[in-house]
């Protein structure tokens, strides 16, 4: 997947924008552009960097958990850690499933 990360990353973002077109408003690089998304010269490099980044799910999970723990130390507990861990794992499973479906469709 790494060798094709630019194309897969772009497909990933195009799928997001297909499902939720209003999501384009969240990206400053797309807000003032009249160019079709698949032809936007800034989207592909951004998509590639995000796609490569999401291959580091465990590091991201650890960083998220530590950030939450530091933000609300008085609330942090084994139960909270477990709940956040499960929510993150489910999100990652859904992302990976969609990535797999997108790669098999091409």
TrEMBL record:
- Which SUPFAM superfamilies does this chain map to? Globin-like
Query: Among its keywords, does the record have Signal?
Result: no
Q: Which GO terms describe its molecular function?
A: heme binding; metal ion binding; oxidoreductase activity; oxygen binding
Q: Which UniProt keywords apply?
A: Heme, Iron, Metal-binding, Oxidoreductase
Q: Which reaction does it catalyse?
A: Fe(III)-heme b-[protein] + nitric oxide + H2O = Fe(II)-heme b-[protein] + nitrite + 2 H(+)
- Taking the record's annotation, the residue ranges forming a coiled coil are none
Cofactor(s) required for function per UniProt? heme b
Against Gene3D superfamilies, the record matches this protein to: Globins
Domain Globin per the UniProt entry, residue ranges: 1-100
Summarize the protein's role.
Answer: Phytoglobin that reduces nitrite to nitric oxide (NO) under anoxic conditions (e.g. during flooding or in waterlogged soil). May not function as an oxygen storage or transport protein. Has an unusually high affinity for O(2) through an hexacoordinate heme iron because of a very low dissociation constant.
Family of this protein:
Belongs to the plant globin family.
Any idea what this protein is called? Non-symbiotic hemoglobin 1
Q: Which organism is it from?
A: Hibiscus syriacus (Rose of Sharon)
């Amino acid at each position: 997947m790494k060798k094709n990360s630019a194309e897969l990353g772009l497909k990933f973002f195009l799928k997001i924008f297909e499902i939720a077109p209003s999501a384009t408003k969240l990206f400053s690089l797309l807000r003032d552009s009249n160019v079709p998304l698949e032809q936007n010269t800034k989207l592909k490099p951004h998509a590639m960097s995000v796609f490569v980044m999401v291959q580091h799910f465990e590091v991201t999970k650890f960083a998220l958990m530590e950030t939450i723990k530091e933000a609300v130390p008085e609330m942090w507990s084994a139960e909270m850690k477990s709940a956040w861990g499960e929510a993150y794992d489910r999100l990652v499973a859904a992302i990976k499933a969609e990535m797999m479906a997108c790669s098999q469709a091409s």
